[in-house]
Amino acid sequence: MISVRDLSHRYPDGTEALDGINLTVDQGEAIVLLGHNASGKSTLLKALTRLIEPTAGAISLDGTAVTGATARELRDVRRRVGTVFQSINLVDQVSVLSNVGHGSLGRTDNPRNWFAWTSSSTVRDEAMVCLERVGLAPFASRRADQLSGGQRQRVAIARMLMQRPTIVLADEPVAALDPRAGREVMDVLWQVVAEKSLTLVCTLHQLELAEAYGDRVVALQRGRLLLDGHMRDLSRTDLAGLYSEDSEQADSAENSQHDEAGVNR
User: Fold this and answer.
1) Can you say how many angstroms the Cα of residue 168 is from the centroid of all Cα atoms in its chain?
2) CA dist., res. 22 & res. 6, Å (int)
3) Which one of 100, 125, 152, 255 is separated from 107 by 20 to 30 angstroms, measured CA to CA?
4) pLDDT tens column, 108-156
């Protein structure tokens, strides 16, 4: 489902944000991508759908070569890739149901689906099913800005389901939430992915969440693939090495260099 071969990305200042990454993720597999800030996690997720252009290497998603794809082919790929980000990006001024309906816009291309009250009954019914799945059907008519952070992220998951993706990319989906809300969101995300046999790549920096939810763990450090294995085969020492003082200082220094250079990670 996801194939990455010799993937590299170099920032304008010459720093290798990704350095020769090789990764394969099978259909229906859910992996945790670990590493602290500036390890290359978010850069890798963006490269998968060419939100940033790789410097070298090859990427294939769901049978389509992403590197070298035409604009039309790339749009088709992106329609099949659902996203859940730390910045939830709901439209606060409209209803929860309307926000979930926005997930259909990539495949229906109908501006009437921007609002629940102007969309078709088919879209509204499907959006309600997605809301029911994340436990928020009673909140359908509320404005998005009236929800808590955990509820808003569950709306984002419902919106992702409305997209009908085959692949889900989740970038630090619970980093801004308190531990209880974060666990609730992770439970919902992992459950819906398993139910629909979706392929998931979820970046995290919290070891306790990786241990609780990760079956397979892929770890990056300074843009390089440090480890790739099943959680049952990894010790806490293996994982803690990703967050050693020396590696954090090195990556923090690298991150500062990019900030000074005005590079948007």
Assistant:
1) 6
2) 5
3) 152
4) 878 888 888 899 999 999 999 999 999 999 999 999 999 999 999 999 9
pLDDT tops 90 at residue 6: yes
Among all chains, which residue has been given the structure tokens 């194939």? 3
Burial of 88 (0-12, 13-18, 19+ CB in 10 A): buried
Phi/psi of residue 242, nearest 5 degrees: -65, -20
Predicted model pTM: 0.87
Residue 60 tokens read as 């294939």
Residue 62's alpha-carbon distances to 12, 155, 199, 235, in angstroms, are: 30, 25, 10, 32
Asked whether the beta carbons of 119 and 108 are under 8 A apart, the reply is no
For residues 255 and 197, what is the distance between their CA atoms, to the nearest angstrom? 36
pLDDT band per the 50, 70, 90 thresholds, residue 206 = confident
CA distance 247 to 39: 9
| Helix, strand, coil percent content, the chain, rounded in steps of 5 | 45, 25, 30
What is the C-alpha separation between 244 and 18, in angstroms, rounded?
20
Q: Residue 21: name the closest of 36, 46, 12 by CA.
A: 46
Query: Token digits for 222?
Result: 């300074």
Extract the runs of DSSP E, i.e. beta strands, from the chain. 2-10, 16-25, 30-34, 56-61, 64-65, 81-85, 167-171, 199-204, 216-221, 224-230
CATH architecture type of domain 2-80+165-261: 3-Layer(aba) Sandwich (3.40)
- What gap in Å lies between CA 84 and CA 71, rounded to an integer? 23
- Per-domain boundaries in the chain: 2-80+165-261, 91-164
